[in-house]
């Protein structure tokens, strides 16, 4: 049978079936590509690989077409044979490709121009935080061009439970990630304790208004304004925070409400959804 003749699709790994749309658009099907992706997804669920016969059985396709596709995947080094040649498993090529453009690096590269634009307009510094091993890692930071600002250094680790960034990441985490983040949390030096009741109230407030604005728990005279950078599933992949300080000399700069709106726009520009706040 021709390699391009559409066939009923074989069984797919359960972990991928639920992610596919219920009614896929069949107009743009590419059967050969589908077969290759099906094999990769199947092997991704098998720690010790599968024999060709086992792959044929799982895919519910003919041995010949599976053999041709396996040979191409082996030739392109996406799949490898074991030394005896009777089992197939994923190689590390997909892993290597994924790490050629790490997601965090891409996010930082995309964020820096937007953060710089915010800093110039708001005359304030800003930083981006991501969850990292139980706390928050400051992954990017821009100073105010005016020279007067409060900033948190890039690479610093700040508390999950006493910072605006940490509370935003918790508020916009799914239930499983929320519990994992709390379980992994280790208090940092100087961390301000918080009760479960206070944390729950803070998270409820964030979810209601879409951002957090409050006096800093670490420094006098600083107001933390923080918005989530949202992924496609409406969970926070990062946070954008401005430690706002008000000048009291004769220079007239943007006031807090204007800075808040500028930060909201910056966070929305980096989000995969346009509903980062109200």
UniProtKB/TrEMBL annotation:
Region (Disordered): 1-27
Residue ranges of every copy of the IclR-ED domain listed in the record: 93-276
Gene3D superfamilies, per the entry: 3.30.450.40, Winged helix-like DNA-binding domain superfamily/Winged helix DNA-binding domain
Keywords, comma-separated and alphabetical: DNA-binding, Transcription, Transcription regulation
PROSITE patterns for this protein: HTH_ICLR, ICLR_ED
Gene Ontology terms for molecular function: DNA binding; DNA-binding transcription factor activity
Matches recorded under SUPFAM superfamilies: GAF domain-like, Winged helix' DNA-binding domain
Any one Gene Ontology BP term: negative regulation of DNA-templated transcription
InterPro entries for the chain: GAF-like_dom_sf, HTH_MetabolicPath_Reg, Tscrpt_reg_IclR_C, Tscrpt_reg_IclR_N, WH-like_DNA-bd_sf, WH_DNA-bd_sf
Domain HTH iclR-type: 30-92
Protein origin, superkingdom: Bacteria
Protein name in the entry: IclR family transcriptional regulator
Lineage per the UniProt record: Bacteria, Pseudomonadati, Pseudomonadota, Betaproteobacteria, Burkholderiales
